[in-house]
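On clarity, I found the account of how folds are encoded harder to follow than it need be. What matters is that the chain and its backbone geometry are given together, residue for residue. I therefore recommend that a typical entry be quoted early in the introduction. An entry of this sort, consisting of the sequence and the corresponding backbone structure tokens, reads as follows:
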Amino acid sequence: MSTYWFKPKTYGYGGTPVTWEGWTLVVVNVVAVIGCIVLIAIGQHVVLGLLGAFAVTGLVVWLSMIKTDGTWSWRWGNKS
């Protein structure tokens, strides 16, 4: 049985972390993107930094989508 790391957001598009695995994925993404920004800022590897940031973020979005309990769609909250 698969456990879900995210739940669909109440307002907006996407998912919200609900387990430690989901929060860990978010933190890993933030750290990786900061690392890519540092590469760009020191001027050594601009292209590598941009490609790395896009690749890591794309992987995190894909993994978040498949580990969400439900589908990602635009939501306006609970309608009564």
